[in-house]
Structures are given as C-alpha cells and as structure tokens.
Amino acid sequence: MAEEKPHVCDICKKAFSYLSCFKKHLLTHLEQKQYVCDICNKSFSQKKFLNAHLLTHTKEKPYTCEICNKAFFHKLGLKTHLLTHTKEKPHSCEVCNKAFARREALKKHLLSHTKEKPYACDICNKAFSDQSNLKKHLLTHTKEKPYACEICNRAFSQKGNLKTHLLVHMEKKPLACKICKKKYSQPGSLKNHLLSHVDEEL
C-alpha cells in the first residue's frame, strides 16, 4: 500500500507524509536565507545545510566508510557509497523495473523512457539525455583530446576510445567473427570484416 502524502507544496507540487517535513521544505522556497557562510557569503535556508557546506571549505571529511576507509563530507554521501558494498539497489524504475543504487542514476535512466534530452550543445544545438554525454560531445568541437596513451602518446577525446586503443598494445582481441572466428580489438574493425562475408555470399 502506497504511503499517503497529504501535504502538497503549492510551489513545486512535491508531496509529504508529515507536516514537519512539509514545513521544512517550504523554507527552501523562501527568498530569505538567513544562514550565511562567512567565507564565501553563500546563503542557506537551514543551519544544517550551512554546516554541511562549511565542510567543503575546511576539507574535513568526518564520515568514513568502515569497509574501505573512503571519507565523505556528508552523511548522505557515505550512505549512498555503502550501497556499493551491499549491492543494494533501493531505487527502481516504475516503467521497466530496473533497479539502481542511487536516486540520481534512476533519474538519468528515466530520461531513456521519456526520450527527454534536457542538455543541449550551445554550438550545434544537438541535445543529450545526460550531462556526461554533452561533455563528451563538446570535446568534438574543441578538438581537445585529454586521454593520452602512455605507450605511444596517441590522444583521444573520450576515455572509452583510449581503453579500446590499449587493447591493441595488449594484443587482446575480445571481438570474434562468428563465421570464421577471426578476432578484432575494435567493433568498427569487426563490422568492416563482416562486410567481406556479405560480399562472398553475393
């Protein structure tokens, strides 16, 4: 049975089960943010948000994972991280039931169902469903290639392309032709090879 959420925010339509949570939420919409950071003047609606923000200035990370010793600024960061150890995936997609460890990952996934592409390139207007793909795309305009091979110095605009290239040096060829069993390190090379079998059949 779904939890009843009778308290609805008129501004953003977010619903809450408890009045106390609803009241706290309303503060986030108030223009007056009374808790101000003395270091950078950033303001916050609640003291706990200011306290959490202050940790970014001190670089103090008080929340440590007992399993791998990774440290975090915020309790939520540690809580989310712990899911990687437990393999727990509490956030599931209502459309296809795929489960995710992080709420952010679920939000990103939902865009694949809605076909929504909120991140657009300012240069060519090409749109993307998530910000990381837009960042990768922008490198095609700047011609920037930040990922360099340590063996031959060949540079790539995307990390995935560098990983594929490294297979050449390691002589690993994980992609095999199902017809003649010849192996390739890159999908494009295998694709071109498969065309030779098509030509043989003609």
From TrEMBL:
<keyword id="KW-0832">Ubl conjugation</keyword>
<dbReference type="GO" id="GO:0008270">
    <property type="term" value="F:zinc ion binding"/>
</dbReference>
<keyword id="KW-0539">Nucleus</keyword>
<feature type="domain" description="C2H2-type">
    <location>
        <begin position="7"/>
        <end position="34"/>
    </location>
</feature>
<feature type="domain" description="C2H2-type">
    <location>
        <begin position="119"/>
        <end position="146"/>
    </location>
</feature>
<protein>
    <recommendedName>
        <fullName>C2H2-type domain-containing protein</fullName>
    </recommendedName>
</protein>
<keyword id="KW-0804">Transcription</keyword>
<feature type="domain" description="C2H2-type">
    <location>
        <begin position="147"/>
        <end position="174"/>
    </location>
</feature>
<dbReference type="InterPro" id="IPR013087">
    <property type="entry name" value="Znf_C2H2_type"/>
</dbReference>
<feature type="domain" description="C2H2-type">
    <location>
        <begin position="35"/>
        <end position="62"/>
    </location>
</feature>
<keyword id="KW-0863">Zinc-finger</keyword>
<keyword id="KW-0238">DNA-binding</keyword>
<dbReference type="Pfam" id="PF00096">
    <property type="entry name" value="zf-C2H2"/>
</dbReference>
<keyword id="KW-0805">Transcription regulation</keyword>
<dbReference type="GO" id="GO:0000981">
    <property type="term" value="F:DNA-binding transcription factor activity, RNA polymerase II-specific"/>
</dbReference>
<dbReference type="InterPro" id="IPR036236">
    <property type="entry name" value="Znf_C2H2_sf"/>
</dbReference>
<dbReference type="GO" id="GO:0000978">
    <property type="term" value="F:RNA polymerase II cis-regulatory region sequence-specific DNA binding"/>
</dbReference>
<comment type="similarity">
    <text>Belongs to the krueppel C2H2-type zinc-finger protein family.</text>
</comment>
<keyword id="KW-0479">Metal-binding</keyword>
<keyword id="KW-0677">Repeat</keyword>
<comment type="similarity">
    <text>Belongs to the sal C2H2-type zinc-finger protein family.</text>
</comment>
<comment type="function">
    <text>May be involved in transcriptional regulation.</text>
</comment>
<keyword id="KW-1017">Isopeptide bond</keyword>
<feature type="domain" description="C2H2-type">
    <location>
        <begin position="63"/>
        <end position="90"/>
    </location>
</feature>
<feature type="domain" description="C2H2-type">
    <location>
        <begin position="175"/>
        <end position="202"/>
    </location>
</feature>
<dbReference type="InterPro" id="IPR050457">
    <property type="entry name" value="ZnFinger_BTB_dom_contain"/>
</dbReference>
<dbReference type="GO" id="GO:0005634">
    <property type="term" value="C:nucleus"/>
</dbReference>
<feature type="domain" description="C2H2-type">
    <location>
        <begin position="91"/>
        <end position="118"/>
    </location>
</feature>
<keyword id="KW-0862">Zinc</keyword>
